[in-house]
């Protein structure tokens, strides 16, 4: 009998029952006041008059009027660059202990996002909140005695001047509490390995020693790890070696496109729980099994604002126009898409994180991620966001009975007319023209803006079918494998030329 598991589960259920009902709007007002008070004597706080803001009768709207929007380049060039000169009290008291390296999906030189000790603690507290929310998922007591596979970036952080650098998953894993280390796999020694292939090989070799109950990580890299374990031990599915695997905590990207290929690696159905952990902080997690939406963490060091996601407010590089309106949590509406802004205990202020979200339950502050501002494809007015592209891919999977875990596309000019040129990653047999025809017709049925664009300057859809591993090798060449690395869903024409040259190169070798 799972005695310890029963005790842990009982504690979680009691804690959940005793926790008072939250008011997300009031929590956000309190978080903003705490952030302004803590940072009022920093250079940033003095420049924007945080002390005066704290005396305002309407702090939220006064804050929005006084402090402009920032993306990474603007806050780095104006403020954060001073942190690398060992200056203190710039946008947050002191100097950050860590910097999270984030190449995101752009493939450019890594961004360096400050991560303070307060943010490390906030991420840890958010993880604890998520554990308590497991009481809602009706998991058996023995689940709470199983080991947890956390597949992120290397925990071997780089020391630079007076701080440490690494990806946020590596920073978080390097700060796990001592009591949790016995549950944490693949363990500190393997997690420090920088080389992705070497790390996954070691995981495969050690897999029989572990009793894994849950796994977490970005879907594409989790799939590759599971495939490696299955292949190494000549298994039919992963449950032959980890029979007690019951939960997958997804994050980083939408799980939808990976659902079919992921489930094909399972021997039985498992619970999938979505999370939203970015380099800038732990933003949301799925708290209920009745929905795939995630609950914003409204009481834990992050203040949220929301800009309506309309083409006229988005610059070509994905940043916001200076006149874009902003809403507080008390002003948003269900079913509307917004660009997410955050201000945090790491000294990010009104920061455009680059994601777009939609509210599904305002009272619970529940959201779903709908895409990226940079991946909003609006060539000749087609207005395709990532969630609409994901829906189209899922439709292809259902209609053709295939799995398409990866894709990318570009609006490419061909003989004076624009075409949406898609590359679909699948191991299944599929005819590119048949997929293109159905993709085109589905988008016209589902998106009136796309239909209008097709009647004007958008010539149609072209599809090229490639193996999924092509996408992983592209990431390996341009960034690296594993960790927080994600495939760009939409490319500009110059980047797309590099992509097609890469495809041509590997097809001839």
> Number of helical runs?
17
Percent range of helical residues: 25-40%
Which stretches are low in confidence, meaning pLDDT under 50 for 5 or more residues running?
1-12
Overall strand count? 18
Q: Can you name the CATH architecture of the largest domain?
A: 3-Layer(aba) Sandwich
What's the overall average pLDDT, rounded? 85
What number of domains? 2
CATH topology of the largest domain: the name is Rossmann fold
Estimated radius of gyration: 23 Å
Question: End-to-end span in angstroms?
Answer: 56 Å
Q: Main sheet?
A: 11 strands, mixed
CATH class placement of the largest domain: Alpha Beta
Output the strand order for the largest sheet: 6-3-7-8-9-10-11-15-14-13-12
Shape label? globular
Structural class: alpha/beta
CATH superfamily heading of the largest domain: ANL, N-terminal domain
Strand percentage, roughly? 15-25%
Structure description:
This protein has 2 domains: 1-373, ANL, N-terminal domain (Rossmann fold, 3-Layer(aba) Sandwich); 377-507, no CATH class. The chain is built from 17 helices and 18 strands. It has helices at residues 3-18, 24-39, 43-47, 50-54, 59-66, 72-78, 117-133, 168-173, 188-191, 196-206, 219-232, 259-263, 386-400, 432-446, 448-454, 469-478, 493-507; strands spanning 98-102, 111-115, 147-150, 158-160, 163-166, 184-185, 212-217, 247-250, 271-278, 281-285, 294-296, 302-308, 337-344, 351-361, 366-372, 406-414, 417-425, 458-466. The protein has an 11-stranded mixed β-sheet, sandwiched between helices. Strand 7, helix 11 (219-232) and strand 8 form a beta-alpha-beta unit. Residues 297-362 form the GH3 middle domain. Pfam families: GH3, GH3_C, GH3_M.
């Amino acid at each position: 009998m799972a005695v310890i598991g029963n005790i842990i589960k009982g504690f979680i259920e009691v804690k959940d029952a005793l926790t008072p009902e939250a008011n997300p709007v009031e929590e956000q007002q309190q978080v903003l006041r705490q952030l302004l008070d803590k940072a009022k004597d920093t250079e940033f706080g003095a420049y924007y008059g945080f002390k005066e803001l704290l005396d305002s009768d309407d702090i939220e709207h006064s804050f929005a009027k006084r402090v402009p929007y920032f993306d990474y380049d603007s806050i780095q060039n104006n403020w954060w660059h001073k942190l690398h000169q060992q200056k203190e009290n710039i946008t947050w008291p002191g100097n950050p202990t860590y910097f999270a390296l984030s190449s995101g999906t752009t493939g450019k030189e890594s961004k360096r996002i400050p991560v303070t000790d307060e943010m490390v603690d906030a991420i840890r507290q958010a993880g604890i909140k998520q554990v308590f929310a497991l009481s809602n998922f009706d998991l058996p007591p023995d689940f709470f005695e199983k080991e947890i596979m956390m597949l992120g970036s290397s925990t071997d952080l780089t020391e630079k001047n007076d701080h440490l650098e690494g990806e946020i998953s590596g920073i978080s894993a390097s700060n796990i509490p001592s009591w949790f280390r016995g549950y944490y796999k693949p363990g500190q020694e393997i997690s420090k390995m920088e080389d992705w292939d070497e790390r996954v090989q070691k995981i495969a070799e050690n897999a029989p020693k572990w009793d894994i109950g849950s796994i977490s990580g970005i879907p594409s890299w989790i799939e590759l790890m599971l495939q490696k374990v299955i292949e190494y031990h000549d298994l039919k599915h992963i449950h032959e070696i980890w029979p007690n695997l019951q939960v997958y905590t997804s994050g980083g990207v939408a799980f939808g496109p990976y659902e079919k290929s992921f489930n094909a690696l399972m021997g039985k159905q498992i619970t999938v729980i979505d999370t939203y952990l970015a380099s800038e902080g732990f933003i949301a997690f799925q708290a209920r099994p009745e929905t795939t939406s995630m609950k914003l963490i409204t009481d834990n060091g992050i203040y949220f604002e929301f800009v309506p996601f309309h083409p006229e407010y988005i610059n070509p590089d994905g940043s916001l126009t200076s006149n874009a309106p902003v809403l507080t949590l008390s002003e948003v509406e269900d079913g509307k898409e917004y660009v997410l802004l955050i201000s945090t205990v790491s000294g990010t202020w009104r920061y455009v994180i680059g994601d777009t979200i939609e509210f599904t339950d305002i009272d619970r502050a529940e959201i779903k991620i709908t895409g990226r501002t940079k991946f909003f494809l609006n060539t000749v007015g087609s207005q395709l966001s990532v969630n609409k592209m994901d829906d189209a891919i899922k439709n292809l999977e259902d209609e053709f009975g295939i799995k398409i875990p990866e894709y990318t596309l570009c609006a490419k000019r061909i003989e004076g007319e624009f075409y949406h040129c898609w590359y679909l990653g699948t191991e299944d047999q599929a005819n590119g023209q048949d997929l293109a025809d159905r993709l085109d017709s589905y988008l016209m049925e589902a998106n009136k803006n796309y239909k209008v664009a097709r009647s004007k300057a958008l010539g149609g859809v072209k599809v090229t079918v490639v193996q999924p591993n092509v996408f992983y090798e592209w990431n390996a060449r341009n960034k690296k494998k594993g960790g927080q690395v994600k495939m760009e869903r939409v490319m500009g024409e110059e980047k797309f030329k590099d992509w097609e040259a890469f495809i041509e190169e590997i097809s001839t070798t």
